[in-house]
Amino acid sequence: MKNVILVAALATSFAFSANAMNAEVDTDGDGMASLVELQVSQPDLTDVVFNEIDTDGDGFLNDDEMAAAIEAGTLMDPEADA
């Protein structure tokens, strides 16, 4: 039971972190992050890397794609500096 609670707590904190980043970079409020929006906080992000992270190929990162990129270390987690 303790393991279930720990896993749930970690998943919740990770989801919050990804959503917080999305809110920080989503300057037009469409619920997704474009390359230009992400480059404001992460200027070294290239279009090549962005396209690799954008797994559905729609030109934007959704919460799942951003969470995966943070977990993989491809994108910086804004909560890490807080």
Strand residues, percent:
under 5%
CATH names the topology as Recoverin, domain 1
User: Can you give the mean pLDDT?
Assistant: 79
H/E element string? Answer: HHHH
Q: What kind of oligomer do you see?
A: single chain
Protein name: EF-hand domain-containing protein
Organism: Falsihalocynthiibacter arcticus
Domain EF-hand: 41-76
InterPro entries: EF-hand-dom_pair (IPR011992), EF_Hand_1_Ca_BS (IPR018247), EF_hand_dom (IPR002048)
Verbal overview:
The protein is mainly alpha-helical. The protein has one domain (2-22, 30-81): Recoverin, domain 1, CATH 1.10.238. Helices cover 59% and strands 0% of the residues. The chain has four helices and no strands. Helix 1 crosses helix 4. The longest helix has 24 residues, at 2-25. The N and C termini lie far apart (31 Å). Residues 4-18 have low confidence and may be disordered. Keywords: Signal. It comes from Falsihalocynthiibacter arcticus.
Attribute tags:
82 residues; mainly alpha; globular; 0% strand; 4 helices; Recoverin, domain 1
What's the gist of this structure?
The protein has 82 residues and is mostly helical.
Which helices and strands occur, and which strands form pairs?
Elements: H1 2-25, H2 35-41, H3 47-53, H4 63-72
Helix pairs in contact: 1-4
